[in-house]
Structures are given as C-alpha cells and as structure tokens.
C-alpha cells in the first residue's frame, strides 16, 4: 500500500506520510477505511515500526486519520475538508506565481521550483 525509496534524502516517515496523504486525497483510501496495522506496514517495507508509528501520528495530528484503542487506525470521515484546503493552497500558489512574475521571475525559474517541489513531495 505504502512505498518508500531508501535512496531518497527524505526521511522514511515523511515518505509514508505523503504516500498516505496522496492515497487519501485521490480517494484510493475511503473515509472510515481501516489502515493496515503499523507492524504489518513495517514488516512489509522492512523498516522499524517506530518509523511507521511516527508517520501515523503525523497523519492523525493533521486530521487525515483517527485511531481507536484496540481497533486500529482509520481514514478520517472529514476528507472533504482537505479538498477545500487544497483549493485554498492552489489559490495561494497562483497568487505567489503572479507576484513572482511581477518581480521579474521567468518561466524557467518558476518551473524549476515547481519541479523540485513535486519531486520532493512538496518539500523544498
């Protein structure tokens, strides 16, 4: 379900976090769907369970998932709010690009930044 690149500079827990966010955002993981247990993910990926725990904690803190004692972790039923958050973020990107162009930034500079952000899962 989740994938990691051991050669990437990005920490494994961030890769798992971004992979989950991507799956949730694209509707692959539905609201209230149960996520695989931490130990299963760790075993499947060949990593320490604490790494997966950290990713799940970040997902819960950011509202993408919720956990119940003894039952596991589930996709938040409030995923619609993330669509609104995405729309707001895209409006901000559009404004920032407009400001950069007004300040003399060219297509090459802007696309380099976008490409770098997309390659690094949003982290510059």
Automatic annotation (TrEMBL):
InterPro entries per record: Tscrpt_reg_HTH_GntR (IPR000524), WH-like_DNA-bd_sf (IPR036388), WH_DNA-bd_sf (IPR036390)
Alphabetical list of Gene3D superfamilies matching this protein: Winged helix-like DNA-binding domain superfamily/Winged helix DNA-binding domain (1.10.10.10)
Coiled coil, from the record: none
Keyword Plastid applies: no
Keywords: DNA-binding, Transcription, Transcription regulation
GO molecular function terms noted in the UniProt entry: DNA binding; DNA-binding transcription factor activity
Domain HTH gntR-type positions: 10-78
Name of the protein: GntR family transcriptional regulator
